[in-house]
Amino acid sequence: MKTVNIALPKGRLGEKVYKILENAGFACPDMKENDRRLIFESAHGEVRYFWVKPSDVAIYVERGAADIGIAGKDILLEYSPDVYELLDLGIGVCRMAVAAKTDFRDNIEKTLRVATKFPNIASAYYEKKGRDIDIIKLNGSIELAPILDLSDVIVDIVETGTTLKENDLAPFETVVPISARLISNKASFKFKNNEITKVIKALEEK
Ligand code: PRP
């Protein structure tokens, strides 16, 4: 038997996925008692979990440091890692949207200033529409940009819509629906196929 190395995104989504795997027989009892350690192995070595920053999961999997992992579709679209996308887990559901101040009206004579953490997704979206844009790449708190007139719009994740509302912003267009995906390293999928298939089944039957 080969151990399957699994990159879990730190946070709510990763914890949810771990619970599903725990119930399916891939438990690591020490995980509950230690929230600082980053690596945990199941009792009989079936799986080894790594807690990884969500936006780094795809890098670990692409380079083979992890065999499989859980990544948001947003990260997969933004970075196009060379991995297999095996399963839509139907959790972590949200959307990538264009949002702006509630009174925003697009003036197509002017270059649109777009603040985002996802420059590739935003560029591809506006290129398809033939709209000239200026990308302002930020790393968080994107909602501040239109408020301070740093940008006209933002392209960002909207889940409940609360963050937009609390900042007097509104969603205008949906760019793409997002959810969590199970991804696999290409070589691992070949050489650990039996073991990875067991994990896929557990997640499918959740
Ligand atoms: C995401 C996103 C929004 C918020 C949307 O932020 O950038 O700010 O969640 O959720 P809501 O529609 O339910 O309010 P995240 O928590 O990932 O932090 P960051 O983008 O500021 O790093």
How much of the sequence is in beta strands? 25-35%
What are the low-pLDDT stretches, counting only 5+ consecutive residues below 50? none
Distance between the termini: 23 Å
Summed up, the helix count is 8
Order of helices and strands: EHEEHEHEEEHEHEHEEHH
The class by helix and strand makeup works out as alpha/beta
Give the strand order of the largest sheet, numbering strands 1, 2, ... along the chain: 2-3-1-4-11-5
Shape: elongated
Largest sheet: 6 strands, mixed
Q: What gyration radius follows from the Cα positions, in whole Å?
A: 19 Å
Query: Which ligands accompany this protein?
Result: 1-O-pyrophosphono-5-O-phosphono-alpha-D-ribofuranose
The percent of residues in helical segments reads 25-40%
Q: What is the number of strand segments?
A: 11
Q: What is the overall pLDDT average?
A: 96
Report on the architecture of this protein.
The chain starts with a strand and ends with a helix. The protein contains 8 helices and 11 strands. Helix 4 links the parallel strand 7 and strand 8. The protein is of the alpha/beta class. The relative contact order is 0.22. Helices cover 31% and strands 31% of the residues. The protein is elongated. The structure holds 1-O-pyrophosphono-5-O-phosphono-alpha-D-ribofuranose.
